[in-house]
Amino acid sequence: KGYTYLDNSKSSFNITFLTLASIFKLNYLDIDNGSSLNHRGSYYPGIFNFDEPSLLKILKKVGYDNYLVGNYMLPCYENYSISCINHFYRDKFTNIINKITSDYAIQKANEDSLLGRFLNILRIYFEKNNNDTIKHLNTSNSIGILGQLIDTNTRFFDEGGKFFFVHHLGPHNPYRDKNCKLLLDQQHTKGNYLSSVDCLFNMIHELDKKIDLIDNDNIVLFQSDHGPSFEYSWNLGLKDLSSSMLLERLDIFNII
Fold first, then answer.
1. In what order do the strands lie in the sheet with 65-69?
2. Residue 46 Rama label (left phi>0; alpha psi -120 to 50; beta)
């Protein structure tokens, strides 16, 4: 296809919302001066609520409209600097269930409770039992959302001049097989993670063929989730992490 692989490119952070913020700010973030890493509103996606990020300013200046495709963990919030592309189910009840089970704030607030576990089980159950729809369209599959837009509304792309930032949650759990079906075993193992990587690459291949249909003056920036954390210790400070731990987390897929 003619892609260039940057073998030694390690420009990401160990945490996803820091990496995404640095992309939009076109600069590394200063995280050594007392900033709370738990205050995500200062980073991504909260940066859209403050000053317009440098990347979007530059694109807007040269005539681009900016769009974001998020996911349930880091969703898109419509505002003056960026528009959202989301998938909504036609059935209202399905929409409500999907929003509740996929809301990251609700999940985070209840992650250690019985309610949180129930919502997680319900989300996986919901996806398994709507397989025809969910195979390509679910709250984890940002690639599928953009693919659906290309399939159903090619006129949207005719004028060009559109920038799409696609943050795909994979290969983060919930884990999938190479055909992108949910695995029954959702344990954090290397086998499950690698099968989700295969799923991710297969989806990229399919999206790549669709992008050829809209490849005039449009730009698509695709960003996967962070690398795994099999060796990574969340109990250590940044300065105490070994190089192998950092390399594992920084192993992230990005394509333009």
1. 83-84, 65-69, 162-167, 219-223, 254-255
2. alpha
DSSP at 75: -
Amino acid at 7: D
CA 246 to chain centre: 20
**Is the pLDDT confidence value at 88 over 60?**
no
In this structure, what token pair is assigned to residue 87?
Answer: 């998938």
Directed axis angle between helix 54-61 and helix 16-25, to 10°? Answer: 40
**Measured between alpha carbons, how far is 69 from 142 in angstroms, rounded to an integer?**
6
Residue type, 193: Y
116 to 103, 169, 182: CA distances (angstroms): 11, 19, 19
**DSSP string computed for 178-246:** TT-PBPS-----HHHHHHHHHHHHHHHHHHHHHHGGGTTT-EEEEE------SS--TTS-GGG--HHHH
Residue-level pLDDT at 137: 44
The confidence score (pLDDT) of residue 134 equals: 40
* Count helices and strands in the chain by DSSP H and E runs: 9, 5
Q: Tokens at residue 16, please?
A: 């996803």
Mean of pLDDT over the chain: 76
Task: Determine the pLDDT at residue 57.
Answer: 92
Look-up of token digits 């884990």: 175
Rounded Cα gap, residues 97 and 121, in angstroms: 12
Closest CA to 39 of 51, 53, 29, 27: 29
